[in-house]
Amino acid sequence: MAGVRLGGAVVFVRNLDRSIKFYTEVLGLTVADRSTTAALLSAADGPQLVLRAFGENATHPLGALGVQYLVWMTDSREDLDRRTELLRQRSAYRDVHSVDNGVTVEGRDPDDLVLMLNYRPDGAGGLGSLPARVYAW
Question: How many Å apart are CA 94 and CA 45, to the nearest integer?
């Protein structure tokens, strides 16, 4: 394998069941392992997401150190549009941006954490340039 790629991420959430439902329905992840306070979600192509419940009073200060949001890639514009509709159905859709021949949809998870979905028709992974949102703090 040449280079590295992100294999997984850990997200602290308020309510585990609510977050599992959201991420399995919107991103199509499956539950690979679970305890009473955490779950390992996986995608068929490898990325994994660990959800860890911290209770309804947990906070996530905007602009603090650490990961602020993750960007998930889709394979087609149709898939991006389908997932965008899933966000709309959950009142979780926020905005769409077209930059550098790509489209990024911004949504929010049940804890109001940013969720970004990206599609690039040229097949390139990741973002083509810095997202404007990083300067919002």
Answer: 27
What confidence tens digit (pLDDT) does each residue in 41-54 have?
998 877 899 999 98
Q: Note whether 2 and 44 are within 8 A (CB).
A: no
Domain boundaries, the chain: 8-56+69-123
Q: What is the mean pLDDT of residues 110-130?
A: 80
- Which amino acid appears at position 9 of this protein? A
The class level of CATH for 8-56+69-123 reads alpha beta
Q: Which amino acid is at 59?
A: T
Specify whether the CB–CB gap between 115 and 72 falls below 8 A: yes
Q: What angle do CA 18, 10, 55 make, to 5 degrees?
A: 45
Query: CA triplet 80, 127, 103: central angle to 5 degrees?
Result: 35
Residue 91 region, left (φ>0) first, then alpha (ψ -120 to 50), else beta? left
- Order of strands, sheet of 30-34, starting from the edge strand that comes earlier in the sequence: 8-13, 48-53, 38-42, 30-34
